[in-house]
């Protein structure tokens, strides 16, 4: 791990109190580091406000500067941005598909394991393997069908047994686990790691295994609707938990500290429970102090740190040797901009593992090495039949040896293409967690045809995506993302409708605006010239047509003080869902909040990406843009989409 000095510096860096000279702005003279940090923040925010053109407002998409002009002015304002060009070189060499496709990816959350060039190596080898077959016509094996790098298979081991006894792991699993532990800055002496299908599976596993019967409370800190949190809440309620949520003050959407502190310090016998905490909002980019974790622990809570929204190097900033959460969840995808499939990881602190109880929850997975493309041969045409017979024989052998059998289990949906249920195998729990493995792809059952060994020589098994993040480092990645996200916020807020009173703004930002200490995500909405919000789903669809990938989110738990109470009805919208009150004979649940468009930046995002998003949003300055798009789409004789 790190020395005490390094830990302190790391913690300070998370709050952006170090490495400030890298900003590329004049260094103010100050006698104290605190004053210097505050001065840097102020100078940065003032400089960013003029990073497009001083006091500029744009009322037409045809009037604002070109990409070259904008980038030139940006680099003149922040000359040291050019020192992040190592990220551009990595993108050019390893992720060249982003430029070839002219596509902007602002909808990825998590950590990328591999590079596109690695996937290209796999596809090329698959093509050669196919061409070498004398009896089959040549064809290119799609990466989505052949599952490059690895596949996943579900196992019905529960979390308690997995933590208590462990299980046999392949060389592939061992190497990836070791690499992830290093990335997350965690020690194997302190934490046990298990693979899960995704973030939601990890949250549900923990909710199913946590003793809510004795530790009655679940307290979450999310300014947005999160599918994994919804799953956890539903599961915990079924087990008797009392659910509470932090509230966020309008309009800043900062945590209402007084109310959260009151919930954390509840003076009741049953105040203990599970405190679920992200260090930043993956929707608004708001950052929260990790001191909340320490405060929760001091008041008897177990702490789950949600690291899914953090960047690949952000774990270095946490000072986890001082603030070690009891549980930690993160997620990984295969290739940025190309293959979003992957897995989740749940870390359980060994000193807290005794709290995990036996349960019937599922969601644990095994990583299955992909079959070597060169092994696709003449016999592939008969592979399905052979696999089925092999599975039947294995099941028969298991039944004969162990005197038991297991039926098919339900599987969660994955982004991989899956085949029918093929393999059911029961493993003796003598020194391992009892488990049932369920294969999710027909070729994965051929365990003899894998590329798991280190001597295979196939570079695409390296976690090159993680290596790229390591080579760039925390300081460079943080500075790059800080420049770009703040420039984007400034650019979006500079757009104004031409003929509205007082230059009605086209875009509204929710959460932090131009701010030194903010995460690389932004939540916003587009408004027409009459001040009416354009449906975020429409914005997302039109963005996709313009080769820009965005996400939609739903902000909730918003608290309006008396000063802003008059804005409540205008700002909030109500959604309905199952499980609430009875309305017109149907049980519905009313949720109040704000639907938004959200964009997330990563270390591979460049200036051109954020400029293209700005250029796309500016199209809404044309009052007829949405209608024109509807006509154009219909004229192309394609299926009409409601926009």
Automatic annotation (TrEMBL):
PANTHER family: MOLYBDENUM COFACTOR SULFURASE-LIKE PROTEIN (PTHR14237:SF64), MOLYBDOPTERIN COFACTOR SULFURASE MOSC (PTHR14237). Residues 367-428 are annotated as: Disordered. Residues 401-416 have a biased composition (Polar residues). Residues 388-399, 417-428 have a biased composition (Basic and acidic residues). It comes from Salix purpurea. This is MOLYBDENUM COFACTOR SULFURASE-LIKE PROTEIN. InterPro entries: PyrdxlP-dep_Trfase, PyrdxlP-dep_Trfase_major, PyrdxlP-dep_Trfase_small.
């Amino acid at each position: 791990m790190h020395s005490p000095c390094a830990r302190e510096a790391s913690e300070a860096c998370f709050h952006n109190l170090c490495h400030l000279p890298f900003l590329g702005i004049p260094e103010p003279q100050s006698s104290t580091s605190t004053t210097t940090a505050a001065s840097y923040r102020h100078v940065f925010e003032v400089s960013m406000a003029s990073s497009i053109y001083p006091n500029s407002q744009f009322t037409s998409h045809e009037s604002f500067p070109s990409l070259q002009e904008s980038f030139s002015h940006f680099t003149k304002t922040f000359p040291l941005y050019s020192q992040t060009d190592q990220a551009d070189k990595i993108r050019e060499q390893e992720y060249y598909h982003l430029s070839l496709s002219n596509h902007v990816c602002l909808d990825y959350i998590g950590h990328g394991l591999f590079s596109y060039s690695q996937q290209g190596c796999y596809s090329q080898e698959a093509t050669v393997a196919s061409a070498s077959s004398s009896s089959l016509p040549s064809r290119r094996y799609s990466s989505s069908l052949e599952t490059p790098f690895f596949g996943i298979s579900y196992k019905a081991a529960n979390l308690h047994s997995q933590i208590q006894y462990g299980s046999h792991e392949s060389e592939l699993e061992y190497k990836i686990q070791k690499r992830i532990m290093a990335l997350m800055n965690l020690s194997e002496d302190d934490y046990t790691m298990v693979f899960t299908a995704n973030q939601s599976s990890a949250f549900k596993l923990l909710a199913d295994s946590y003793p809510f019967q004795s530790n009655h409370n679940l307290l979450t800190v999310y300014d947005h609707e999160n599918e994994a949190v919804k799953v956890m809440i539903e599961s915990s309620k079924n087990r008797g938990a009392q659910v509470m949520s932090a509230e966020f003050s309008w309009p800043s959407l900062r945590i209402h500290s007084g109310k959260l502190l009151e919930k954390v310090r509840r003076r009741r016998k049953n105040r203990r429970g599970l405190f679920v905490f992200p260090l930043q909002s993956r929707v608004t980019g708001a950052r929260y102090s990790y001191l909340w974790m320490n405060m929760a622990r001091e008041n008897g809570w177990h702490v789950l740190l949600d690291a899914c929204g953090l960047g690949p190097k952000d774990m270095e900033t946490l000072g986890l040797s001082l603030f070690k959460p009891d549980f930690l969840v993160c997620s990984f995808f295969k290739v940025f901009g190309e293959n979003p499939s992957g897995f989740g990881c749940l870390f359980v602190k060994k000193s807290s593992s005794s709290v995990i109880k036996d349960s019937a929850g599922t969601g644990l997975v095994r990583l299955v090495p992909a079959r070597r493309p060169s092994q696709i041969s003449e016999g592939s045409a008969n592979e399905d039949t052979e696999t089925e017979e092999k599975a039947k024989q294995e099941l028969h052998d298991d039944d004969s040896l162990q005197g038991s059998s297991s039926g098919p289990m339900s599987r969660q949906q994955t982004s991989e293409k899956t085949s029918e249920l093929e393999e059911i195998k029961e493993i003796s729990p003598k020194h391992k967690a009892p488990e049932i493995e369920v294969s999710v792809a027909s070729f994965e059952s051929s365990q003899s045809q894998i590329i798991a060994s280190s001597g295979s020589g196939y570079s695409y098994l390296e976690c090159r995506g993680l290596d790229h993040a390591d080579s760039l480092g925390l300081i460079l990645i943080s500075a790059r993302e800080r420049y770009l996200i703040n420039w984007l916020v400034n650019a979006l807020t500079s757009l104004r409708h031409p003929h509205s009173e007082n230059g009605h703004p086209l875009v509204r930002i929710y959460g932090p605006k131009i701010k030194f200490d903010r995460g690389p995500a932004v939540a916003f909405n587009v408004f027409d010239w009459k001040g009416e919000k354009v449906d975020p789903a429409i914005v997302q669809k039109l963005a996709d047509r313009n080769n820009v990938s965005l996400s939609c989110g739903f902000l909730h738990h918003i608290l309006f003080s008396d000063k802003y109470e008059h804005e409540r009805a205008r700002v909030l919208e109500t959604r309905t869902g199952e499980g609430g009150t009875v309305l017109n004979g149907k049980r519905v649940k009313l949720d109040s909040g704000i639907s938004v468009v959200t964009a997330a930046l990563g270390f591979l995002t460049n200036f051109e990406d954020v400029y293209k998003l700005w250029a796309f949003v500016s199209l809404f300055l044309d009052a007829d843009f949405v209608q024109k798009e509807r006509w154009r789409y219909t004229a192309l004789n394609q299926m009409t989409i409601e926009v």
